[in-house]
Design a protein that fits this description.
This protein is mainly beta. It contains 2 helices and 9 strands. It has helices at 73-78, 160-163; strands at 19-26, 29-34, 38-43, 57-63, 66-72, 89-96, 104-120, 138-144, 147-152.
Length: 173
């Protein structure tokens, strides 16, 4: 059978390209992490504390024999530690690291109410209209039926002074 094309209308429309995101909350607001950045989602993990570190840098834990820094996102964003609930998760993400070794490293982020994923069209994300120089990790926003969600940029998560402290190799330490 021959497909006829109507002027101005495609016979086979281009599908919307959606991306998968992990949804979590900071207080009553919803945020998302690009699932492509996520390595694994774990329950809360016990960490080795790092005295003298910022309160939101809660420590390190061993992941496949490698120490991984753990960031408490509610402590970083809201000034309070993450609630210890079943829905609070440790999310391992690929953190782009520029250094002698380059590449990406694993970083753990503690987030609350991380119990689902959603698909969103990247084209639906727009600027919030508010500059957040002290919270560069707050990214673009997108609408969905329950309201706006805001994207968290893994690459912008760590302040410059903390980047200098993390992922120090044994040679540098």
């Amino acid at each position: 059978m021959h497909k006829e094309r109507v002027r101005g209308v495609r016979a086979n429309p281009v599908p919307v390209r959606t991306m998968l995101f992990l949804v979590f909350q900071l207080d009553h607001d919803r945020y998302v992490l690009d699932a492509a950045d996520v390595v694994e989602v774990l329950p809360l993990v016990p960490v080795k504390a790092l005295p003298g570190a910022p309160a939101w840098l809660v420590g390190v834990f061993s992941y496949h024999g490698q120490p991984v820094p753990v960031i408490d996102l509610p402590a970083l964003a809201l000034g309070r530690p993450a609630a210890r609930r079943l829905s609070t998760r440790t999310v391992l993400v690929r953190y782009p690291f520029v250094g002698a070794e380059g590449g990406a490293r694993i970083l753990a982020i503690v987030v609350e109410q991380a119990t689902r994923t959603m698909r969103l069209d990247p084209a639906d994300f727009t600027a919030s209209g508010v500059a957040t120089p002290h919270a560069r990790y707050l990214g673009l926003v997108a609408p969905d039926p329950a309201g706006l969600v805001q994207r968290i940029s893994v690459q912008e998560l760590l302040p410059d002074d903390v980047k200098a402290l993390l992922f120090v190799s044994e040679v540098e330490a």
